[in-house]
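queue> pop job 88
queue> type: inverse folding (structure -> sequence)
queue> payload:
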């Protein structure tokens, strides 16, 4: 697809860690052009460079074209919506505030593609990993009806913690996985932090991430759910129990997973399903799509964060150590980049698919 003119995009929460990822991913995007950067009233009125100050956390410098853009206040949509065709949202506010502000933008006929969790369980809001459940975008007309909009809606991407194992479970659905144990080993960037601003994490593991276990257990079920009567009804299986640990890693969430299946796949079948798994992003060759969504590594010591986290520019998923288990049927280890596939990159891929499917277009 080639757009005649780039779509104008705003980033809400542009100064935060996920916002910075959006900015770096969008700076040279073939379809989108950043026209608005918004953050809290603390940042409003400053240039982006001043507002970010010493909080810039990306390994590449602030893109030249946004350095001098003046940041506006997220809570003043009237200063944003005429300058954008859609927005990405990555604000850190209370859930109620986020729900309200994202609906406010949608009601101005501005589509919102959100990284936040606030609307993940709103029954007519699609929560999408584009390779897996793009069909959930079919719920958007029902949501627009509720909001009273023609083009405005909210779409979200799921939590970063589920990205290392949900794709494998999706690839294996015909074998009917029905019960899983998941332990996640999550990077500090998932909390918006680096070692500089979270020195307690050096040489440490913290066995608690607020709210993360519920997300890790429940969100895959919405992804595997079906649309019924204008709402997304979550699947009943696989039931998942999880523990989520924060580990001293800058980027990359690892998951150790045990699965029981109703069917009896062989190892060869399981690996074949992983590596052949494709979705609409691959079919349409979307700009941010990994060519190969899931790679399987045969080496006994993979996936490793340092070797595999940037697979397919951080948009691919690496699975390894697949072997039979003595209590469960199979076990494996998965790895995904939490701020790319798991946050801003996943949201950009959602937006690209929404653009390709005609849900996002020029105002
Ligand atoms: N980090 C991850 O990997 C990750 C993954 C999935 C989801 N998330 C979620 O994504 C959101 C952003 O995370 P983050 O790590 O980027 O957080 P962050 O670094 O703390 O950034 C928060 C952003 O929100 C803005 N903000 C804060 N209070 C605001 C207010 N009252 N009004 C308007 N804007 C306000 C901040 O602007 P100022 O700079 O002006 O304060 C900043 O731009 C959070 O909801 C988080 O739970 C993060």
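queue> result:
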């Amino acid at each position: 697809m080639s757009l005649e003119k780039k779509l104008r995009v705003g980033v809400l929460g542009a100064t935060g860690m996920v916002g910075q990822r959006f900015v770096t991913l969008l700076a040279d995007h073939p379809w989108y052009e950043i026209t608005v950067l918004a953050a809290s009233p603390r940042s409003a009125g400053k240039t982006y460079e001043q507002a970010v100050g010493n909080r810039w956390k990306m390994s590449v410098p602030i893109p030249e074209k946004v350095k001098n853009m003046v940041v506006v206040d997220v809570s003043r949509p009237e200063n944003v919506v005429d300058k954008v065709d859609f927005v990405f949202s990555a604000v850190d506010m209370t859930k109620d505030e986020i729900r309200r502000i994202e609906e406010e933008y949608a009601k101005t006929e501005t589509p919102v593609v959100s990284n936040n969790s606030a609307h993940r369980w709103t029954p007519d809001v699609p929560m999408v990993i584009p390779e897996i459940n793009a069909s959930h975008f079919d719920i958007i007309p029902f949501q627009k009806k509720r909001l009273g909009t023609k083009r405005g809606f909210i779409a979200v991407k799921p939590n970063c913690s589920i990205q290392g194992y949900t794709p494998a479970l999706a690839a294996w659905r015909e074998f009917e996985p029905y019960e899983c144990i998941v332990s996640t080993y999550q990077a500090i960037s998932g909390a918006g932090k680096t070692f500089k601003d979270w020195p307690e994490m050096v040489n440490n593991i913290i066995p608690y991430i607020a709210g993360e276990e519920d997300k890790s257990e429940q969100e895959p079920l919405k992804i595997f759910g079906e649309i019924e009567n204008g709402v997304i009804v979550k699947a009943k299986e696989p039931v998942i129990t999880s523990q989520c640990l924060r580990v001293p890693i800058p980027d990359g969430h690892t998951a150790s997973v045990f699965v029981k299946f109703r069917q009896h796949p062989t190892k060869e079948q399981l690996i074949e399903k992983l590596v052949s798994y494709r979705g609409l992003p691959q079919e349409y060759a979307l700009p941010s799509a990994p060519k190969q969504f899931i790679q399987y590594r045969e080496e006994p010591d993979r996936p490793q964060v340092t070797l595999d986290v940037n697979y397919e520019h951080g948009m691919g998923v690496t699975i390894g150590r697949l072997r039979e288990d003595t209590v469960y049927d199979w076990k494996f280890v998965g790895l995904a980049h939490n701020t790319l596939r798991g946050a801003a990159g996943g949201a950009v891929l959602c937006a690209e698919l929404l653009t390709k499917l005609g849900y996002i277009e020029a105002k």
